[in-house]
Design a protein that fits this description.
Elements: E1 4-5, H1 6-34, H2 39-54, H3 62-76, H4 81-95, E2 101-102, H5 104-122, H6 132-147, H7 152-168, H8 193-210
Helix pairs in contact: 1-2, 1-3, 1-8, 2-3, 3-4, 4-5, 5-6, 6-7, 6-8, 7-8
Bound molecules: adenosine-5'-triphosphate and magnesium ion.
Magnesium ion (MG) binds at residues 31, 35-36, 38-39, 79, 179.
């Protein structure tokens, strides 16, 4: 695999919607421990709306399609997750505007823009117990893998593995951003729901584009 096509990007979006639907209750359960028990419901509503929006609208432009995903999430997810996931996909789209194929360096640039966008919007720092704790290691591991000479597929797998580590590392953290921060020390001992859905995103990218 040297590049991903427009169809591969659409398959990723569909697969992420399926994964979110499967994990809806788990994400909501994680959010019930340190939030308001809606993260899975919010994300599933958004990704269902994305599928409805994309159905029959194959533009061939990867950037345009990813921007449509972002705009749909902004208008349907609500809460903290809507603007954050909306920004993530809008930035993926802006970075891939007009492209019908993505090479490894294109995904590096897109992922960097997406993570910068999430951080600019949410002002989270590492270890604040947020989405950033999965996304930043995922981005960094991807870049490091390419620098090491890893294949596209291997770099995607290392990105997902690093995001998983980052997600697990949120368990002992005390939340410093979002609704979970209202709990103070009581937020420790629970895995962050947004870091979990962010790991699922990078895992779905790897599973769809690089095989299992
Ligand atoms: N400032 C932030 N930066 C990055 N991620 C954040 C930030 N605030 C919250 N999050 C992420 O959002 C997740 C919660 O998303 P969810 O969809 O449940 O929204 P919410 O917190 O219920 O929103 P609201 O409080 O507006 O109802 C958290 O687990 C965390 O990962
Ligand atoms: Mg919530």
């Amino acid at each position: 695999m040297l590049a991903v096509t427009y169809d591969d990007v659409v398959r990723f979006i569909q697969a992420y919607a399926d994964v979110i639907a499967e994990q809806k209750d788990h994400l909501t359960q994680l959010d019930s421990a340190i939030g308001d028990a809606d993260h899975g419901i919010n994300m599933n509503r958004g990704m269902k709306a994305v599928l409805a929006k994309l159905n029959g609208h194959a533009s061939g432009d990867i950037g345009a399609t990813l921007k449509t995903v972002g705009m749909t999430l902004v208008s349907t997810v609500g809460g903290a997750g809507g603007p954050l996931y909306g920004t993530l996909f809008l930035q993926l789209g802006a970075a891939t505007s007009g492209k019908s194929e993505l090479e490894p360096a294109d995904w590096e640039a897109a992922l960097a823009a997406a993570v910068d966008g999430v951080i600019a919007r949410g002002k989270a720092e590492l270890q604040d117990k947020t989405m950033a704790d999965a996304l930043v290691p995922g981005r960094d591991a991807y870049r490091a893998a390419l620098e090491d000479g890893a294949s596209f597929a291997e770099a995607l797998r290392r990105s997902a593995a690093a995001a998983e580590e980052g997600m697990k590392a949120t368990i002992p953290l005390v939340a410093r951003k979002g609704r979970a921060s209202y709990l103070g020390e009581r937020s420790a001992g629970h895995q962050d729901p947004g870091a979990t859905s962010s790991w699922l995103l990078l895992k779905t990218v790897a599973d769809t584009w690089a095989g299992d």
